[in-house]
Amino acid sequence: MSAEALENLRKEVEQAAEGLVFISESDSRVVFVAAPEARVEEVMPAAVVKWLSAQHDGRTDVLFQDEPLPRLAARAVEVKEADTFLHNREQILEPDEPESVEAARKWSLIREALEQNLQELRVIRFGEPHPRYDTVEGQVSIFVVGRTQDGALAGILTCAVET
Predict the structure, then answer these.
(1) Rounded distance, CA 73 to CA 50, Å?
(2) Number of domains into which the chain is organized
(3) SS (H, E, C) 72-102
(4) What is the per-residue pLDDT across 90-149, written as a single tens digit (0 to 9) for each?
(5) Which domain holds residue 131?
(6) Which of 75, 85, 148, 156 is 20 to 30 Å from 50 by CA-CA measure?
(7) Cα-flanking dihedrals φ and ψ of residue 7, to 5°?
(8) Residue 54 in contact with residue 144, Cβ under 8 Å?
(9) How far from the centroid of its chain's Cα atoms is residue 149's Cα?
């Protein structure tokens, strides 16, 4: 993917994510992340830590409470299907509320942009290890990332608080 194509993806995702709120126990923004210099063969947690930590660690503009995000390298990790995650966001939960309809539309635009431009789209979640299950909880950093044909990483970052 050329630098121009990656920039177009960024603009498309940022436009769709404008005003979008990821709702959990603590709401957060949806932001675009990319590592054009990466050359990964497979989208794995280690690649996200290596190439995207600098765009995550200490960041204060994702959670609405302005809390800095912790170091990814110190967190437990879980990998999920991007298709299921994005499909769930596209559902209109309250058809009579314009905000719900608009949020679903924005998630559809984000999904379309990511799927058209990236391969191996995955959800990689970083948080505290759950005591009984092979999942993460607490303040969770959620990356929906994939790779370009030339191995660059790109996608979105948001957060959830799950207790």
Answers:
(1) 9
(2) 1
(3) HHHCEEEEEEHHHHHHHHCCCCCCCCHHHHH
(4) 988 888 998 889 999 999 999 999 999 999 999 999 999 998 888 999 999 999 999 998
(5) 3-162
(6) 85
(7) -65, -40
(8) no
(9) 19
47-106 residue pLDDT tens = 999 999 999 999 999 988 778 999 999 999 999 999 999 999 998 888 899 888 999 999
Which pLDDT band holds residue 38 (cuts at 50, 70, 90)?
Answer: very high
Nearest one of 32, 42, 37, 39 to 8, comparing CA atoms: 32
- The total of other beta-carbon atoms located within 10 Å of residue 83's CB is 13
- Indicate which CATH number applies to the domain containing 77: 3.40.1460.10
Q: What is the pLDDT of residue 65?
A: 79
Query: Residue 94's CB: how many other CB atoms inside 10 A?
Result: 11
Extract the tokens encoding 118: 């990236």
